[in-house]
User: Fold this.
Amino acid sequence: MQFIMRTFLAVLLFVSLGSCAHDGTVYFLVSEITPTHNDSYILPLTDPDDIAQARALITDPNNTTAKIVVASIAPCENCDYPNRDLLNDGRRWSWCITGFQAFAENTIEIYDGWPTFVENDLDGWIENTNGVIGFWAYTVTRELTPFEVFSGHLSDK
Assistant:
């Protein structure tokens, strides 16, 4: 009975969240190129050119040197989606992306870090960087479904 109830709730969640794709938002997993910290975050994109570039990074990561996500972040009370570490049981971060700026070849050193580091001192990060991230060792590694974003669980692909 518990399995049936979970399945029903998952289907209901997926159907109700399917409308998120209608607003043009496509979600991507951003994680390390070479795992060291073993964490991740979610990048929402709406611009078709940015979405195409993110998909190109997934398809052929060696085709460009502009792999670093440069984005503005803010505490989650301003978030339109749950930012999660999908590599670690979908734990929720207290921050999210509020504005994508660009894919870059490099960033200034103060923007470099990792999601857990930001989480451990969000106020300090925002104060020091004006709320900008540009983690050198991270890039887009997977496109996500709305179900994965909102349930916090990666499906097998």
Observations:
- The longest helix spans residues 2-17.
- The chain has one domain: 2-151.
- Strands lie at 26-32, 40-45, 68-75, 84-85, 91-92, 95-104, 132-133, 138-144.
- The helical segments are 2-17, 48-59, 115-120, 122-129, 146-151.
